[in-house]
Amino acid sequence: MSSAQPDNPEHAAELLAKIAAEQSRAAFSELFRYFAPRLQAYATRQFGNEQTAMDLVQETMTNVWHKAHLFKPDRGSAATWIFTIARNIRFDLLRKNKHRQNDLSADDLWPVLAETNDSLDDDYALDNDLLMQQLAVYCEQLPKAQRTVIELIYIEGKSQQEVADALEIPLGTVKSRTRLALQKLKELIQHDD
Amino acid sequence: MIKFHPSEQHLVLYAAGELSPAMLMMVGTHVDMCPKCQAHVQDIEQHMAAKLFGESETANIVHGFDEQAMLQAIFDSQQPAVNNTAAANDSLFLEGHRFALPPTLARNSHRIGEWSRLPGKLWRAPVRVGGEEMLNFIYMDKHASLPEHTHKGNEVTIVVNGVFNDENNEYRDGDFMLLDEQHKHSPATQDHDCLTIAALEGPLYFTTGLSRLLNPFSSLFFK
Questions:
Q1: For A137-173, what is each residue's pLDDT tens digit?
Q2: Taking CB atoms and an 8 Å cutoff, what residues of chain B touch A104?
Q3: What is the mean pLDDT of chain B?
Q4: Chain B, 29-88: which have a CB under 8 Å from a chain A CB?
Q5: All domains of chain B, ordered by start, with CATH?
Q6: Beta B194-201 vs B154-165: how paired, if at all?
Q7: Is the pLDDT of residue A123 over 50?
Q8: Domains of chain A
Q9: Which phi and psi angles does B106 have, rounded to 5°?
């Protein structure tokens, strides 16, 4: 037995990993006994309603149990992840009884519990954003052949196959030019920092 | 580079979910586009989590509920429905152009209403998010201009794609600008078109809630 407590971030992350990998009830119970009473104490004071507070605790911890595989240790601590789940549940609970059309849900704003799609994961989104918004300047420094491919893919939104067809070059060439261009862009940015 | 950012107070209230729906969309869109504010929001979330689960909260624990019963209910619960928002539509087509939508707008693309043409090479489409405040896409074609105007209340605009100018500055992708009633301005485009999203800022909702864990009114809580 480890003597670490769930207030130790590394230990809490290990517990989540165990829940994700082997549905460990022991690991979950340990996390629960640390986080649930704190959430309950806070929510009771906030809502001034014990039942709503209990709903918040139960819904939050139910998601922790089922969705532990969505926790990404490189994005923040276990406590922060659990906080963002509770924030989302609270947001929806506060709107639940209003039944207004068009109301935003927490998932629309903060996709904490979205199953990520491999072709559109965070790295891609970040690369894409960086390219679109901040790297236009660096693109100017690429060799023309690479720049053309990057512009067609990232600005016009073509697939690599469409680029190959448009330029009448093999798909492999498009792929290697894309890879070289992205690599070159990374170097340019790091060099600039 | 992005030059204009939301205030720290906006970021704290966004992280707590305590802005109007229109403003949550606006700050979320900027955060998608701005690595600096993204990192700042992660810091804010971490600080709120530390306060919520930290030492001071342990004093309030009364153990007033049956933990064992809740644990059992959780173990017996069904897997919640899979939520796959990554399949959202991340492109917007207008006047023969394709615009990439930042993730917050992409996840909410089903809320975008019909485009309508306004005088002066301008297009507008509402985004229906509930709440009192209007949220609209405004598209300015090349060489378009809006007549000089002021706002009732604060108006927030983000450049989603393109560039426009007013008397004071040039605004590019990701720039978040807040204009109050005192500001007169006449936005105009030159050789580039520009897609923006704009909201009127309603009252800030900060009297209770998660944001109180921090103090959004202190000047720069963590620098």
A1: 777 888 888 888 888 887 777 888 888 988 999 888 8
A2: 21, 24-25, 108, 129-130
A3: 84
A4: 32-33, 35, 42, 45-46, 48-50, 52-53, 57-58, 60-65, 67, 70-71, 73-75, 77, 79-80, 82-87
A5: 1-52+100-203 (2.60.120.10)
A6: antiparallel
A7: no
A8: 9-109 (1.10.1740.10), 118-192 (1.10.10.10)
A9: -60, -45
